[in-house]
Amino acid sequence: MLAQRIKAQGTDLGFDLVGISPVHPPTHGESFAGWLRRGYHGEMEYMTRTAEKRLHPGEFLPWARSVVSVALNYNTPHGREAEAEGIRGWISRYAWGDDYHDVMQAKLTRLLEYVRAEAGTEVQGRVFVDAGPVLDREAGARAGIGWYGKNTNLLSMTIGSFFFLGELFLSLDLEWDRPIRDRCGQCRLCLDACPTNAFVGPYVLDARKCISYLTIELKGAIPRELRPLMGNHVFGCDICQDVCPYNTKVKPTKEQAFHPREGLHAPELIPLLSLSEAEFKAKFAGSPILRAKRRGFLRNVCVALGNLKRPEAMPALIRTLQSEPDPLVRGHAAWALGQIRAPEAEAALRATGSRETDPTVREEIESAIS
What we know:
By secondary structure, the protein is of the alpha+beta class. The protein contains 16 helices and ten strands. Among the domains are: 2-75 and 98-170, no CATH class; 270-370, Leucine-rich Repeat Variant (Alpha Horseshoe), CATH 1.25.10.10. It has helices at 2-12, 29-37, 45-49, 51-55, 57-60, 100-119, 136-142, 189-193, 211-217, 239-242, 277-283, 293-308, 314-323, 327-340, 343-353, 359-369; strands at 17-22, 66-73, 90-91, 125-128, 147-148, 154-155, 163-170, 199-201, 204-205, 233-235. The strands form four sheets. Strands 1-2-7-4 form a four-stranded antiparallel β-sheet, sandwiched between helices. Strands 3-10 form a two-stranded parallel ribbon.
């Protein structure tokens, strides 16, 4: 059968899991709509702009009959123990290597070419990798890739939750796979481990409190009350996945592109504060970290240094406060110096506050001194 050949080819291309589902309105559509109504998506306005397309894929792609969902493991055998030495931060595992959009897109495009060659008829198809109006987890769950975990990630018995999702919409009627039942049981390790209490309850995330949202999607100032809860996270988090029992014995990815680039696993933080715009783009070329942009990433670095409270970071933070062109970064540097609470830090805050022209930075300085 063509469906079985497509899944076998997907495996040959390197995908860890491949499943097929119909193009129907999402089973959890009302839950998604309610999530949006309650504002849990924060500043991710693209979610509301594309809501109707996500809820009605048959209208968005009227020719589509089936969805091939794929999962690609990105887990590598590196943990948080490397953070012990030096002044280091944490970058989410998914961003250690090359940009997953490029890797997945190439594989799915090859799968579409295979389908067109095998089908014996004209085939319409469209590839999506976390960059279109598609409810990826909904399609994956319906195709048997995994089930919704209480941390809102899809979970798989075989590859845990450290995997990327992608979809290939096809104009073919194919045999569908069955969903997998929820296997979380009474476990609530992920819910209890979240430092910012971002989970409203099982299966419901308030993104506005999520460290991944705060360090990647949020473009402005991080709410002051949440900063001390973020630890040394500078891009993403992983805590709710780290504690999940289904991730304890997962084999490392076979995809070399996802293995850590030099300096991205538990990076030294102080040198990152000196990156110019050009240096930032060069260092993270082809990396998901570019999504945060320089200003957002350096903002995060300042928060991490403030939480670590290491006096060695003061000279770099003072230079940032005094000479960084972006007020967002200057303001968070002021907060970090206030957390260190050293005489040198207070002196620098007072000296800089007298000549700072940006009102948001002045307010951060005043708060840091008080």
